[in-house]
Design brief:
single chain; alpha+beta; 60s Ribosomal Protein L30, Chain: A; 3 helices; 6 strands
């Protein structure tokens, strides 16, 4: 019987052989909208300020610091930290509603208080708003806020549902 000769290949020659590459499916086009959308709750009093009450970027909603101001720009609850805390959260809720979210979607708040002795009452009002499911939070005592008569300012970050 005749011996069959095989062509000898070295290991290095085998490594350089081209490999079949699977073609990746074409990427689906992604609809690109604006990276951020300004949220305007429609309050006329804030038109004179160069700020956005909220910004919706992706699924994140950033709410500017809210004071205890009513829809006409008047200070609500003069001298009453609980009333002012509730008003600030009503304002936050109004802004979040414009973005299709609510207070339950808040993941972080920062509160600025003008009186450290009001901290306990502020926490009680906040508990009335969030119940047993509060967001992460920070509280800072400051000398004063931008609008006279305001005792608290609250900013929030929420994740849209």
């Amino acid at each position: 019987m005749a011996a069959i000769k095989r062509k000898a290949t070295s290991k290095s020659a085998r490594r350089t052989r081209p490999r079949a590459v699977k073609a990746k499916p074409a990427a689906k086009p992604v609809a690109k909208g604006p990276r951020r959308k300004r949220i305007d709750p429609g309050w006329s009093w804030d038109d004179r300020y160069p700020l956005a009450q909220g910004i919706h970027s992706g699924q994140t909603i950033f709410v500017s610091g809210q004071l205890a101001l009513g829809p006409s720009g008047e200070v609500v609850g003069l001298g009453d930290i609980k009333a002012q805390t509730h008003q600030a959260f009503r304002n936050i809720a109004t802004i979040l509603e414009q973005a299709g979210a609510g207070l339950k979607d808040i993941v972080k708040i920062t509160s600025f208080l003008t009186d450290e002795n009001a901290f306990g009452d502020m926490l009680e009002a906040r508990r009335e708003v969030f119940g047993d499911d509060p967001p992460a939070s920070t509280a800072v005592v400051v000398r004063q806020l931008a609008i006279p008569g305001c005792m608290i300012e609250i900013e929030a970050i929420a994740i849209a549902p």
